Amino acid sequence: PTAFFTWFTQLLDEYSPELAEAIYRVSPVGQFVWWVVPAFYLLAVVVTFEILTAFMVELFLALKEEAELAEGGSPEGEEDDEEGGLPQEMPILAEMQARLQNQKLHAKVAIYPDFQRSLKREYAKQCGDEKE
Questions:
Q1: What is the residue-wise DSSP string for 67-91?
Q2: What is the SS3 assignment for 16?
Q3: Per-residue pLDDT for the chain (132 aa), expressed as one digit of tens each?
Q4: In 10 A of CB 119, how many CB atoms?
Q5: Total-model pTM
């Protein structure tokens, strides 16, 4: 029971050199057994934590995608904005410009390929409407 408690505590805490020093002083072959503590920490704690983290992230992403599909939305890779593909900054910048009244707001917005295509389509529509 005590060994299990020590192991469990070691999993929860970070590496503690005090435990390695105690094993070194108490064990008859302390110079060899001392390596048990760092080896245990590296193998048990670090590897277990990495595996647990990887599975938790995968599970979170799968659940998030299921929730988005259940809500009727599209998965994250296929984002559709309400603004017709406009970047999220555009409504914010428009509101800021409205508040500035007679002043100019200079801002650079990253243009995404989907936005660029929709902008070209809209421009073509507007030019077509003006000709008629």
A1: HHHHTT---GGG---TTSS--THHH
A2: coil
A3: 677 777 677 666 777 778 778 878 888 887 787 787 778 777 877 788 888 888 998 899 889 888 888 887 655 555 544 445 556 777 777 887 788 877 776 766 666 777 777 878 888 888 876 655
A4: 14
A5: 0.34
